[in-house]
Amino acid sequence: xxxxxxxxxxxxxxxxxxxxxxxxxxxxxxxxxxxxxxxxxxxxxxxxxxxxxxxxxxxxxxxxxxxxxxxxxxxxxxxxxxxxxxxxxxxxxxxxxxxxxxxxxxxxxxxxxxxxxxxxxxxxxxxxxxxxxxxxxxxxxxxxxxxxxxxxxxxxxxxxxxxxxxxxxxxxxxxxxxxxxxxxxxxxxxxxxxxxxxxxxxxxxxxxxxxxxxxxxxxxxxxxxxxxxxxxxxxxxxxxxxxxxxxxxxxxxxxxxxxxxxxxxxxxxxxxxxxxxxxxxxxxxxxxxxxxxxxxxxxxxxxxxxxxxxxxxxxxxxxxxxxxxxxxxxxxxxxxxxxxxxxxxxxxxxxxxxxxxxxxxxxxxxxxxxx
Length: 371
Ligand code: BGC
Ligand code: ZN
Hints:
This protein is of the alpha/beta class.
Protein backbone atom coordinates (compact mmCIF):
# COMPACT_ATOMS: atom_id res chain seq x y z
CA UNK A 1 0.00 0.00 0.00
CA UNK A 2 1.04 3.58 -0.50
CA UNK A 3 2.18 5.54 2.57
CA UNK A 4 4.16 8.66 3.44
CA UNK A 5 7.14 8.03 5.71
CA UNK A 6 10.05 9.88 7.27
CA UNK A 7 13.44 8.18 7.46
CA UNK A 8 15.44 9.79 10.29
CA UNK A 9 18.75 8.07 9.42
CA UNK A 10 18.86 9.63 5.97
CA UNK A 11 16.67 12.63 6.84
CA UNK A 12 14.41 11.91 3.94
CA UNK A 13 10.68 11.94 3.52
CA UNK A 14 9.21 9.71 0.84
CA UNK A 15 6.12 8.05 -0.57
CA UNK A 16 6.77 4.37 0.11
CA UNK A 17 5.22 1.03 -0.63
CA UNK A 18 4.51 -0.41 2.83
CA UNK A 19 3.15 -3.84 3.79
CA UNK A 20 -0.64 -3.89 4.20
CA UNK A 21 -1.69 -4.33 7.83
CA UNK A 22 -4.13 -7.13 8.59
CA UNK A 23 -6.44 -7.91 11.46
CA UNK A 24 -4.41 -9.59 14.23
CA UNK A 25 -6.83 -9.78 17.13
CA UNK A 26 -10.62 -10.31 17.39
CA UNK A 27 -11.07 -6.70 18.63
CA UNK A 28 -9.18 -5.16 15.69
CA UNK A 29 -10.75 -3.25 12.85
CA UNK A 30 -9.30 -2.42 9.46
CA UNK A 31 -9.77 1.05 8.00
CA UNK A 32 -9.43 2.55 4.59
CA UNK A 33 -8.06 6.02 5.32
CA UNK A 34 -9.99 8.76 3.55
CA UNK A 35 -8.31 11.97 4.66
CA UNK A 36 -5.41 13.10 6.81
CA UNK A 37 -4.93 16.63 8.14
CA UNK A 38 -1.51 18.21 8.40
CA UNK A 39 -0.46 20.18 11.48
CA UNK A 40 2.58 21.82 13.04
CA UNK A 41 3.60 18.53 14.65
CA UNK A 42 3.78 16.83 11.23
CA UNK A 43 5.87 19.71 9.89
CA UNK A 44 8.25 19.38 12.85
CA UNK A 45 8.53 15.66 12.23
CA UNK A 46 9.26 16.39 8.57
CA UNK A 47 12.08 18.71 9.73
CA UNK A 48 13.35 15.91 11.99
CA UNK A 49 12.86 18.00 15.14
CA UNK A 50 10.43 15.42 16.50
CA UNK A 51 9.07 11.98 15.67
CA UNK A 52 10.31 8.43 16.42
CA UNK A 53 9.90 5.31 14.24
CA UNK A 54 8.53 2.12 15.84
CA UNK A 55 11.17 -0.05 17.59
CA UNK A 56 13.36 -1.69 15.00
CA UNK A 57 11.88 0.26 12.06
CA UNK A 58 13.88 2.56 9.84
CA UNK A 59 10.96 4.78 9.05
CA UNK A 60 7.85 6.28 10.59
CA UNK A 61 4.63 6.53 8.60
CA UNK A 62 3.34 9.94 9.68
CA UNK A 63 -0.15 11.46 10.05
CA UNK A 64 -2.33 11.56 13.17
CA UNK A 65 -5.37 13.71 12.22
CA UNK A 66 -7.52 11.38 10.21
CA UNK A 67 -10.81 10.09 8.99
CA UNK A 68 -11.23 6.47 7.98
CA UNK A 69 -13.89 4.10 6.77
CA UNK A 70 -14.19 0.69 8.39
CA UNK A 71 -13.62 -2.04 5.78
CA UNK A 72 -13.29 -5.12 7.98
CA UNK A 73 -14.00 -5.95 11.62
CA UNK A 74 -12.59 -8.67 13.90
CA UNK A 75 -15.04 -11.21 15.35
CA UNK A 76 -15.24 -9.34 18.70
CA UNK A 77 -15.41 -5.81 17.29
CA UNK A 78 -19.18 -5.90 17.27
CA UNK A 79 -19.84 -2.18 17.78
CA UNK A 80 -18.53 -1.27 14.31
CA UNK A 81 -19.53 -2.30 10.82
CA UNK A 82 -17.96 -1.99 7.42
CA UNK A 83 -18.95 1.38 5.97
CA UNK A 84 -18.86 3.20 9.34
CA UNK A 85 -16.82 6.39 9.41
CA UNK A 86 -14.36 6.67 12.29
CA UNK A 87 -11.73 9.01 13.68
CA UNK A 88 -9.01 7.04 15.49
CA UNK A 89 -7.42 8.32 18.70
CA UNK A 90 -3.70 9.10 18.57
CA UNK A 91 -2.09 7.90 21.80
CA UNK A 92 -1.68 4.29 22.96
CA UNK A 93 -0.95 3.29 26.59
CA UNK A 94 2.47 2.60 28.09
CA UNK A 95 3.11 -0.99 29.24
CA UNK A 96 3.76 -0.29 32.94
CA UNK A 97 1.55 -1.74 35.69
CA UNK A 98 2.35 1.25 37.87
CA UNK A 99 0.87 3.78 35.40
CA UNK A 100 -2.58 4.32 36.82
CA UNK A 101 -3.46 6.68 33.95
CA UNK A 102 -2.70 4.21 31.16
CA UNK A 103 -4.24 1.32 33.08
CA UNK A 104 -7.42 3.38 33.38
CA UNK A 105 -7.51 4.06 29.63
CA UNK A 106 -6.32 7.65 30.15
CA UNK A 107 -3.01 7.46 28.32
CA UNK A 108 -3.40 11.15 27.54
CA UNK A 109 -2.33 11.56 31.20
CA UNK A 110 0.42 8.87 31.06
CA UNK A 111 2.88 9.16 33.95
CA UNK A 112 5.84 7.28 32.56
CA UNK A 113 6.32 8.91 29.18
CA UNK A 114 6.50 5.46 27.60
CA UNK A 115 3.20 5.91 25.73
CA UNK A 116 3.24 5.73 21.96
CA UNK A 117 1.45 8.02 19.49
CA UNK A 118 0.39 6.95 16.04
CA UNK A 119 2.27 8.92 13.41
CA UNK A 120 4.41 10.68 16.05
CA UNK A 121 6.13 8.45 18.57
CA UNK A 122 6.93 4.77 18.19
CA UNK A 123 3.92 3.75 16.08
CA UNK A 124 3.04 4.19 12.43
CA UNK A 125 0.45 6.81 11.62
CA UNK A 126 -2.40 7.32 9.24
CA UNK A 127 -0.90 8.66 6.00
CA UNK A 128 -1.38 5.22 4.54
CA UNK A 129 -4.08 3.55 2.51
CA UNK A 130 -4.93 1.03 5.24
CA UNK A 131 -4.71 1.02 9.01
CA UNK A 132 -5.47 -1.68 11.60
CA UNK A 133 -6.08 -0.97 15.25
CA UNK A 134 -8.20 -1.97 18.21
CA UNK A 135 -11.84 -0.90 17.98
CA UNK A 136 -11.60 0.79 21.37
CA UNK A 137 -9.51 3.58 19.83
CA UNK A 138 -12.12 4.31 17.16
CA UNK A 139 -14.69 7.10 17.41
CA UNK A 140 -17.66 6.72 15.13
CA UNK A 141 -18.75 9.86 13.29
CA UNK A 142 -22.11 10.43 11.61
CA UNK A 143 -21.99 10.15 7.82
CA UNK A 144 -23.29 13.73 7.62
CA UNK A 145 -19.97 14.97 9.06
CA UNK A 146 -17.85 13.31 6.43
CA UNK A 147 -16.63 16.51 4.76
CA UNK A 148 -15.35 18.06 8.02
CA UNK A 149 -14.71 15.06 10.31
CA UNK A 150 -10.96 15.33 9.75
CA UNK A 151 -11.20 18.37 12.08
CA UNK A 152 -12.27 16.17 15.00
CA UNK A 153 -8.74 15.41 16.20
CA UNK A 154 -7.52 19.05 16.25
CA UNK A 155 -10.78 20.00 17.99
CA UNK A 156 -10.11 17.43 20.75
CA UNK A 157 -7.29 19.69 21.99
CA UNK A 158 -9.82 22.42 22.83
CA UNK A 159 -12.38 19.95 24.15
CA UNK A 160 -9.92 18.41 26.59
CA UNK A 161 -8.71 21.87 27.61
CA UNK A 162 -12.21 23.23 28.20
CA UNK A 163 -13.33 20.17 30.14
CA UNK A 164 -10.41 20.68 32.49
CA UNK A 165 -11.16 24.39 32.67
CA UNK A 166 -14.65 23.64 33.98
CA UNK A 167 -13.25 21.16 36.48
CA UNK A 168 -10.71 23.69 37.74
CA UNK A 169 -13.24 26.51 37.94
CA UNK A 170 -15.69 24.39 39.87
CA UNK A 171 -13.78 25.47 42.95
CA UNK A 172 -15.17 28.99 42.41
CA UNK A 173 -18.60 30.55 42.15
CA UNK A 174 -17.85 31.07 38.49
CA UNK A 175 -20.13 29.40 35.95
CA UNK A 176 -23.46 31.00 35.10
CA UNK A 177 -26.35 29.45 37.01
CA UNK A 178 -28.09 26.88 34.89
CA UNK A 179 -30.96 28.66 33.21
CA UNK A 180 -32.74 27.70 30.03
CA UNK A 181 -31.13 29.42 27.06
CA UNK A 182 -28.09 30.66 28.97
CA UNK A 183 -24.82 28.88 28.31
CA UNK A 184 -22.45 28.20 31.17
CA UNK A 185 -19.79 30.63 30.01
CA UNK A 186 -22.18 33.58 30.03
CA UNK A 187 -20.70 36.84 31.39
CA UNK A 188 -17.16 35.57 30.97
CA UNK A 189 -14.61 36.71 28.47
CA UNK A 190 -12.16 34.36 26.78
CA UNK A 191 -9.11 35.23 24.71
CA UNK A 192 -7.80 32.77 22.16
CA UNK A 193 -4.14 33.31 21.39
CA UNK A 194 -3.50 32.52 17.75
CA UNK A 195 -5.71 32.10 14.70
CA UNK A 196 -4.48 28.74 13.41
CA UNK A 197 -6.77 25.69 13.24
CA UNK A 198 -6.42 24.85 16.96
CA UNK A 199 -7.19 28.47 17.90
CA UNK A 200 -10.13 28.87 15.54
CA UNK A 201 -11.70 25.55 16.58
CA UNK A 202 -11.15 26.57 20.20
CA UNK A 203 -12.89 29.90 19.51
CA UNK A 204 -15.89 28.04 18.08
CA UNK A 205 -16.03 25.87 21.20
CA UNK A 206 -15.81 28.90 23.51
CA UNK A 207 -18.52 30.81 21.63
CA UNK A 208 -20.72 27.71 21.80
CA UNK A 209 -20.20 27.58 25.58
CA UNK A 210 -21.41 31.17 25.87
CA UNK A 211 -18.11 33.02 26.30
CA UNK A 212 -17.55 36.45 24.85
CA UNK A 213 -14.61 35.39 22.71
CA UNK A 214 -11.71 37.41 21.35
CA UNK A 215 -9.13 35.94 19.00
CA UNK A 216 -5.84 37.76 19.42
CA UNK A 217 -3.34 37.21 16.65
CA UNK A 218 -0.35 38.83 14.95
CA UNK A 219 -1.84 39.29 11.49
CA UNK A 220 -3.19 42.72 10.60
CA UNK A 221 -6.95 42.97 10.04
CA UNK A 222 -8.88 42.79 7.79
CA UNK A 223 -7.84 39.33 6.65
CA UNK A 224 -9.72 36.07 5.91
CA UNK A 225 -9.17 34.63 9.40
CA UNK A 226 -10.46 37.84 11.00
CA UNK A 227 -13.56 37.61 8.80
CA UNK A 228 -14.07 33.99 9.84
CA UNK A 229 -13.74 34.97 13.51
CA UNK A 230 -16.33 37.75 13.14
CA UNK A 231 -18.67 35.37 11.30
CA UNK A 232 -18.90 33.08 14.35
CA UNK A 233 -19.77 35.96 16.65
CA UNK A 234 -16.29 36.37 18.11
CA UNK A 235 -14.05 39.40 17.83
CA UNK A 236 -10.68 39.56 16.10
CA UNK A 237 -8.02 41.79 17.61
CA UNK A 238 -4.70 42.15 15.85
CA UNK A 239 -1.56 42.55 17.96
CA UNK A 240 -0.68 45.13 15.38
CA UNK A 241 -3.54 47.38 16.49
CA UNK A 242 -3.63 46.61 20.20
CA UNK A 243 -0.42 45.76 22.05
CA UNK A 244 -0.77 43.16 24.75
CA UNK A 245 -0.43 45.57 27.66
CA UNK A 246 -3.43 47.51 26.32
CA UNK A 247 -5.59 44.44 25.63
CA UNK A 248 -7.30 44.37 29.03
CA UNK A 249 -8.16 48.08 28.72
CA UNK A 250 -9.59 47.51 25.24
CA UNK A 251 -11.67 44.39 25.78
CA UNK A 252 -12.19 44.32 29.57
CA UNK A 253 -11.41 41.71 32.19
CA UNK A 254 -9.93 38.48 30.82
CA UNK A 255 -11.36 35.34 32.47
CA UNK A 256 -9.95 32.62 30.24
CA UNK A 257 -6.98 32.38 27.91
CA UNK A 258 -6.80 29.51 25.45
CA UNK A 259 -3.26 29.57 24.13
CA UNK A 260 -2.89 28.03 20.67
CA UNK A 261 0.30 29.40 19.15
CA UNK A 262 3.28 27.82 20.89
CA UNK A 263 4.78 31.33 21.09
CA UNK A 264 5.93 31.44 24.71
CA UNK A 265 6.82 35.13 24.98
CA UNK A 266 3.39 36.43 24.03
CA UNK A 267 1.78 33.74 26.19
CA UNK A 268 3.67 34.74 29.32
CA UNK A 269 3.07 38.42 28.60
CA UNK A 270 -0.63 37.61 28.37
CA UNK A 271 -0.36 35.88 31.74
CA UNK A 272 0.57 39.27 33.20
CA UNK A 273 -2.73 40.86 32.14
CA UNK A 274 -5.36 38.24 33.01
CA UNK A 275 -7.99 39.04 35.64
CA UNK A 276 -9.20 37.75 38.99
CA UNK A 277 -10.08 34.02 39.07
CA UNK A 278 -8.74 33.65 35.53
CA UNK A 279 -7.66 30.36 34.06
CA UNK A 280 -4.91 30.08 31.47
CA UNK A 281 -4.74 27.00 29.23
CA UNK A 282 -1.48 26.20 27.43
CA UNK A 283 -1.72 23.92 24.38
CA UNK A 284 1.25 24.98 22.23
CA UNK A 285 4.57 23.18 22.09
CA UNK A 286 7.26 25.82 21.50
CA UNK A 287 10.51 25.01 19.77
CA UNK A 288 13.63 25.68 21.86
CA UNK A 289 14.69 29.27 21.50
CA UNK A 290 16.79 31.39 23.86
CA UNK A 291 15.52 32.25 27.34
CA UNK A 292 13.54 35.48 27.79
CA UNK A 293 13.14 37.81 30.74
CA UNK A 294 9.90 37.71 32.72
CA UNK A 295 8.60 39.75 35.63
CA UNK A 296 8.24 36.77 37.93
CA UNK A 297 7.28 38.87 40.96
CA UNK A 298 4.35 40.32 39.03
CA UNK A 299 3.30 36.87 37.78
CA UNK A 300 3.47 35.30 41.21
CA UNK A 301 1.70 38.22 42.94
CA UNK A 302 -1.10 38.01 40.38
CA UNK A 303 -1.50 34.27 40.63
CA UNK A 304 -1.78 34.44 44.41
CA UNK A 305 -3.73 37.67 44.85
CA UNK A 306 -6.09 36.88 41.96
CA UNK A 307 -6.65 33.13 42.50
CA UNK A 308 -5.39 32.29 39.04
CA UNK A 309 -4.73 28.84 37.60
CA UNK A 310 -2.39 28.00 34.74
CA UNK A 311 -2.35 24.54 33.22
CA UNK A 312 -1.01 22.73 30.21
CA UNK A 313 -2.87 20.06 28.28
CA UNK A 314 -1.85 17.53 25.65
CA UNK A 315 -3.56 14.85 23.60
CA UNK A 316 -7.11 13.76 24.41
CA UNK A 317 -9.19 10.95 25.86
CA UNK A 318 -12.33 9.30 24.57
CA UNK A 319 -14.56 11.90 26.27
CA UNK A 320 -12.88 14.72 24.34
CA UNK A 321 -13.26 12.85 21.03
CA UNK A 322 -16.94 12.34 21.71
CA UNK A 323 -17.37 16.00 22.69
CA UNK A 324 -15.54 17.07 19.51
CA UNK A 325 -17.87 15.00 17.33
CA UNK A 326 -20.91 16.48 19.06
CA UNK A 327 -19.56 20.02 18.87
CA UNK A 328 -18.54 19.77 15.23
CA UNK A 329 -22.13 18.84 14.45
CA UNK A 330 -23.27 21.96 16.33
CA UNK A 331 -20.66 24.23 14.69
CA UNK A 332 -21.65 23.00 11.29
CA UNK A 333 -25.28 23.79 11.86
CA UNK A 334 -24.53 27.25 13.24
CA UNK A 335 -21.71 28.29 10.92
CA UNK A 336 -21.61 26.01 7.87
CA UNK A 337 -19.51 28.45 5.87
CA UNK A 338 -16.97 29.12 8.62
CA UNK A 339 -16.45 25.43 9.38
CA UNK A 340 -15.91 24.64 5.69
CA UNK A 341 -13.47 27.49 5.32
CA UNK A 342 -11.20 26.07 8.03
CA UNK A 343 -10.25 23.50 5.40
CA UNK A 344 -8.25 25.59 2.96
CA UNK A 345 -7.14 22.83 0.63
CA UNK A 346 -7.51 19.16 -0.22
CA UNK A 347 -4.58 17.65 -2.06
CA UNK A 348 -3.60 14.30 -3.57
CA UNK A 349 -1.11 12.15 -1.67
CA UNK A 350 1.60 13.20 -4.13
CA UNK A 351 1.49 16.76 -2.70
CA UNK A 352 2.91 15.59 0.65
CA UNK A 353 6.30 17.25 0.29
CA UNK A 354 4.90 20.71 -0.48
CA UNK A 355 2.46 20.47 2.40
CA UNK A 356 4.98 19.23 4.92
CA UNK A 357 7.95 21.33 3.86
CA UNK A 358 6.36 24.33 2.10
CA UNK A 359 5.39 27.70 3.55
CA UNK A 360 2.40 26.32 5.48
CA UNK A 361 -0.08 28.75 3.94
CA UNK A 362 -3.79 28.32 4.65
CA UNK A 363 -5.57 27.14 7.78
CA UNK A 364 -5.99 23.36 7.60
CA UNK A 365 -4.68 21.46 4.60
CA UNK A 366 -5.72 17.90 3.98
CA UNK A 367 -4.21 14.98 2.10
CA UNK A 368 -6.81 12.87 0.35
CA UNK A 369 -5.75 9.27 0.74
CA UNK A 370 -8.62 7.14 -0.43
CA UNK A 371 -11.48 9.63 -0.78
C1 BGC B 1 -1.28 15.79 18.61
C2 BGC B 1 -1.43 15.10 19.95
C3 BGC B 1 -0.10 14.69 20.50
C4 BGC B 1 0.86 15.88 20.53
C5 BGC B 1 2.23 15.57 21.09
C6 BGC B 1 -0.26 16.90 18.71
O1 BGC B 1 -0.06 17.45 17.44
O2 BGC B 1 -2.51 16.32 18.19
O3 BGC B 1 -2.26 13.98 19.81
O4 BGC B 1 -0.26 14.17 21.79
O5 BGC B 1 0.96 16.41 19.22
O6 BGC B 1 2.92 14.59 20.36
ZN1 ZN C 1 1.45 5.44 31.04
